[in-house]
Amino acid sequence: MNAPARTLTKPGVFGWLLRREYWENRGGFLWAQVITAGIILVFAALGAVIGAIQLRGKMPGDSVPSNFDGLAQGFGATGDFALLAGFAIAGVVVAFVVFFYCLGSLYNDRNDRSVLFWKSLPVSDAMTVASKLTWALLLTQIISLVVGLLIGLGLWVIIALSSSFAGMPGAGAIFTASHPFRVIGTMLATLPIYVLWSLPAIGWLMLCSAWARRVPFLWAVLVPLLACIVISIMGAMPGLSLPLGGVWYVVMYRGLLSVLPGTWIPAETARHETVESASRQIDSPAGVLDMVLHHTSNPSIYANPDLWIGVVVGIVLITLAVIVRRRRDDA
Question: What is the total count of domains within the chain?
Answer without folding.
Answer: 1
